[in-house]
């Protein structure tokens, strides 16, 4: 497992490097966002160990960038603050280490990533609707609707919100059977029951298990037809 570490605190990096050396892991260190981007382009990392409070970019924001480009990545946060833990797990972090943590704590976090890697990490989303929270898998989602800087997930049970842009979701789900038919909608093709051509060659999609229907944009319909004909 190849690891990329980013932290702006010199002492924190030195301590983490010492632990990684003792555990004999292959790693690289970035002190800022510019170094991070350069290393990330050059290497194929499996695990990212990030601080949360950094001047260049928040570790939470950086994790979202990582997952948008690679849904199979593993992120471990190391921080002195407990209050970001829920947000970290909502984003998709595999662990949240509070400083100062031990070598054993670090090994457990890395072992968790190794275990998930062997099982092929399954994508899951922690969504909310009011005070209710839901842990959804891609196959639970019928369609996704853009809502400013969030998206709305539609399942057969109802609606819930997830704190990502629809363009991020398109990247996260590109290996699954989802298709963006409109700037505001991504549909799960496994749930499509029937289709109907509308004006300007747009397509109206109907789904199993729900009564909703969604009409594509003209461009979305064109791309969908090209996709089906491949």
From TrEMBL:
The modification 4-aspartylphosphate is found at residue 51. Residues 6-33 form a coiled coil. PROSITE patterns: HTH_LYTTR, RESPONSE_REGULATORY. Keywords: Coiled coil, DNA-binding, Phosphoprotein. Residues 2-114 form the Response regulatory domain. Residues 125-230 form the HTH LytTR-type domain. One of its GO terms (molecular function) is DNA binding. It holds the Pfam family LytTR. This is DNA-binding response regulator. It comes from Malaciobacter canalis.
């Amino acid at each position: 497992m190849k690891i990329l570490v980013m932290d702006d605190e010199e002492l924190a990096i030195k301590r983490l490097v010492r632990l990684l050396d003792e555990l004999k892991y292959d790693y690289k260190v970035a002190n800022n966002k510019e170094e991070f981007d350069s290393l990330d382009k050059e290497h194929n990392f499996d695990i990212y160990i990030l601080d949360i409070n950094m001047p260049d970019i928040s570790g939470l924001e950086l994790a979202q960038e990582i997952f948008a480009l690679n849904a199979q990545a593993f992120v471990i946060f190391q921080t002195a603050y407990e209050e970001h833990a829920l947000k970290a797990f909502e984003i998709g972090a595999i662990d949240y280490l509070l400083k100062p943590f031990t070598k054993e704590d670090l090994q457990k976090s890395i072992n968790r990533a190794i275990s998930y890697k062997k099982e092929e990490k399954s994508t899951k989303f922690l969504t909310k609707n009011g005070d209710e929270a839901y842990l959804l898998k891609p196959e639970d989602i019928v369609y996704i609707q853009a809502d400013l800087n969030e998206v709305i997930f539609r399942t057969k049970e109802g609606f819930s919100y997830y704190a990502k842009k629809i363009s991020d979701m398109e990247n996260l789900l590109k290996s699954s059977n989802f298709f963006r038919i409109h700037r505001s909608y991504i549909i799960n093709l496994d749930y499509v029951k029937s289709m109907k051509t509308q004006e300007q060659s747009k397509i109206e999609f109907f789904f199993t298990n729900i009564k909703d229907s969604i009409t594509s944009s003209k461009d979305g319909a064109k791309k969908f037809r090209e996709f089906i004909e491949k």
